[in-house]
Design brief:
Layout (H helix, E strand, L loop, with lengths): L5 E9 L5 E4 L9 E5 L29 E13 L5 E10 L4 E6 L5 E2 L2 E2 L2 E2 L13 E2 L9 E2 L3 E6 L6 E10 L6 E10 L10 E2 L1 E6 L7 E6 L11 E5 L1
Parallel strand pairs: 13-18
Antiparallel strand pairs: 1-4, 2-3, 3-14, 4-13, 5-11, 5-12, 5-14, 6-7, 6-18, 8-9, 10-11, 12-15, 16-17
């Protein structure tokens, strides 16, 4: 959560030591980012162990009944004048057979993170073949991950947005999950009412004696944060 137009005016975290980390050598092409896990942050590394009980205990205050090992990050955010929203890029990576991902936003707006009308879980289409990225092609220590996703939320300058990012285990305490996430202010935000979208980039190529052409491609795989509550819960 950084960059022009965005200030963090308050923050807190409720996590087990070692469950939050940062990346500078961008997984999944997202650039500098943070990771929040239900195990050790090192589990997100290619050789990491993504199946460790962090001994966090029950966490139904943040996630659904039966959930455990919650990692919670809170940030109070302010937008500067000239900015109208928040652009959140993220990847959901998991060793779980089932998972739940929920976004909620302040000012009376609550938004469940969806993709093509489905809640984003490890059983939704974005986390299954042929859309998911499996371990052979991924750079995390988890068995699968979604493609890079992006969601945009409209916000008002100088009105504090309170963001909670939560990731939980549900059922067993092993088989961890993680969110690799990045957030920035935008001045030309358009909301994504249909939920998260695959984070495409446009690339224009000019060939000699031909007209420029624009191609769309998914961000290349290299590896990857508005507000009453954003809750990411994995089963």
């Amino acid at each position: 959560m950084s960059g022009p137009g965005l200030s963090v005016v308050n923050w807190d975290r409720t996590t087990i030591a070692g469950s939050v980390g940062t990346f500078t050598d961008d997984p999944f092409g997202i650039g500098d980012n943070a990771t929040l896990t239900t195990g050790p942050a090192s589990g997100a590394l290619p050789v990491g162990d993504g199946s460790i009980d962090n001994q966090g205990g029950a966490s139904q205050d943040y996630c659904s009944a039966g959930s455990k090992d919650a990692s919670v990050i809170y940030a109070g955010l302010l937008l500067d004048a000239g900015y109208n929203g928040l652009r959140i890029e993220f990847v959901f990576a998991t060793n779980k057979p089932v998972g739940i991902s929920i976004f909620s936003f302040t000012n009376g707006l609550e938004q469940i993170a969806r993709f093509n009308g489905q809640n984003i879980t490890s059983q939704s289409s974005i986390a299954k073949s042929p859309n998911a990225i499996f371990i052979a092609d991924s750079v995390t220590g988890y068995s699968k991950s979604t493609a890079p996703l992006v969601v945009t939320l409209l916000a008002v300058p100088y009105s504090q947005a309170d963001l909670y990012i939560v990731v939980c285990d549900q059922g067993d305490s092993g088989n961890d999950s993680a969110f690799l996430i990045k957030g920035r202010a935008c001045s030309d935000c358009e909301s994504t009412p249909g939920g998260a979208e695959i984070n495409y980039v446009k690339q224009t190529t000019t060939h000699k004696q031909s007209r420029p052409r624009t191609q769309c491609r998914v961000l290349s795989i290299t590896s990857f944060t508005f507000g009453s509550q954003y809750s990411f819960s994995s089963s």
